[in-house]
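Re: the request from the purification team.
They wanted to know what the chain is likely to look like in 3D before they choose a buffer screen. I agreed to run a prediction and write the result into the notebook, where they can find it.
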Amino acid sequence: MNKVGVRAHLLAGVAALATPHYAFAQAAESSTTERGVLEEIVVTAQKRAESLQTVPIAVTAFSANQLTESNINGQIDLPKLTPNLNFTSNSGFASAYLRGVGTQFGNPGLEPSVSVYIDDTYIPRAGSAFFSLGDVNRIEVLKGPQGTLYGRNATGGAIRIITNDPTDKLEGKLEFTGGENGTRVYDGMLNVPLSDGIAVRFAASYDHNDGYVRNLNPGGDANGHRDGQNRDQQLYTAKLLMDRDGPWRFLLSADFSRKDDRESVSESNLFPGAPEQTGAALGGCVADGFYTYCNDGHDYLHTKAYGSTARLDYEAELFTLSSITGYRREYEYNCADIDATGAFVQPVCGAPATKQITQEFQV
């Protein structure tokens, strides 16, 4: 699906302001304006700011501008720009593969072999891998085993999504993108300085399309809809930064995401007629076209995830001590109509939930 249409900038946004404690991985301007000079990119793949040219890890890094220009709306789109990265999906759960290493099934109880991090927080479940990229500063894709710094499960690699921190400038941004199949994408950001060294930043994203396959069941799904492979997801983030140019720096962040759709739900078509299929024998409709399917509305994915992270940094003369405390909750409700007909025969549903508390110290 080609997402082309209208992009309206109602308020001009400015990239995040780098602090003395962190060097962001946006493509930094070179020290010389001479044309043709390679720009320096700074990454934090090893938990400290380093030039991409000197990091002894295979890293692919993207700035916010690169993501926007390439129409990357979520990490599921990253293989467009990242060699050796692929995603497989199973009923709405995404599983990343790096250099052929990954977790075959994106089931709710499995931790993926390619770890996903939002800022400093680990995302443990594949159900949270489908979300829009809102106020993002950069993305780093680390290839190869990363167990030393990113946990025992990072056997294939790690994907780090770093969002923008609050700045000392009053700024805002609102973007809209529209396209075929009812595509509507809204992205907004507001940054407000509260006082000297204290600022807050809010961001929101809404991504929707009507899908490109049609349910032939006369009654449609449980809500009367007849669209499949549709997308409907929301993402909200908020950050509070306290940094008064002293040795202490405190950052509190929170996020909430929600997804209610049938994107990447497996649709099965039966041989025309399927006389020996129970659902067809009971009068359920049967689809055999590539852009059609038939079920009674029990192919569905609902995920809701939220969490918060508190990071406290103390910068001494020879080292920086950091404490990172994270809390996350995730709820999922998913159904599959495994008889692949319009008859109510074999619906399978599950509703797993996850709670995570983490504490990390870095020197």
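For the purification team: The radius of gyration is 22 Å.
Please add any questions underneath this entry.
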